[in-house]
Write a sequence for this structure.
């Protein structure tokens, strides 16, 4: 299996290269289950949090472990926006997003009880990987609909051509094949 080296701080991993669309291969970053890599990324990203950050905002599933570790280090709370409506949600904020990386459309959901916690907050958006930036822009729309302002966009990895202002730790390639 072809692999690609990624490094955060002193931690290096050789991750598998997978085909996501015909002719498009990417290094597959999976933070869940890799405590050392998550900790290294969280420690580095916490240093990039603006001092006035009130809350960390992220998406399920992969970036949750990163947001959790950043919360533990910084003492700031975090909130997770869902990718599926849950039965307990009442009057959720709903935001459509087309994921160019995955070639699918998905919906983001934020329960009104979580939205209330964001009202008037300064939030840092936290992702594991940002490619086109479409999902991060959709998360920013959710934050604004909840009455929050975005003070930072942070990611462990950047991949592709996103023009979104973003602080990230490492660049990873999109590998094209004929």
């Amino acid at each position: 299996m072809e692999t690609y080296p990624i490094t955060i701080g002193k931690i290096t991993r050789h991750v598998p290269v997978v085909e996501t669309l015909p002719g498009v291969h990417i290094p597959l970053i999976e933070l869940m289950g890799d405590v050392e890599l998550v900790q290294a990324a969280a420690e580095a990203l916490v240093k990039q949090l603006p001092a006035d950050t009130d809350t960390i905002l992220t998406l399920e599933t992969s970036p949750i472990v990163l947001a959790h570790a950043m919360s533990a280090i910084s003492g700031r709370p975090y909130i997770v926006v869902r990718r599926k409506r849950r039965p307990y949600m009442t009057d959720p904020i709903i935001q459509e997003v087309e994921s160019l990386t995955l070639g699918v459309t998905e919906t983001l959901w934020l329960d009104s009880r979580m939205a209330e916690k964001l009202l008037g907050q300064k939030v840092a958006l936290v992702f594991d990987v940002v490619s086109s930036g479409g999902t991060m822009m959709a998360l920013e729309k959710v934050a604004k609909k909840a009455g929050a302002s975005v003070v930072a966009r942070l990611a462990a990895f950047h991949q592709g051509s996103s023009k979104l202002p973003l602080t990230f730790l490492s660049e990873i390639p999109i590998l094209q094949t004929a």
About this structure: The CA atoms of residues 121 and 148 lie 5 Å apart. The first helix runs from residue 35 to 46. The first strand starts at residue 3 and ends at 8.
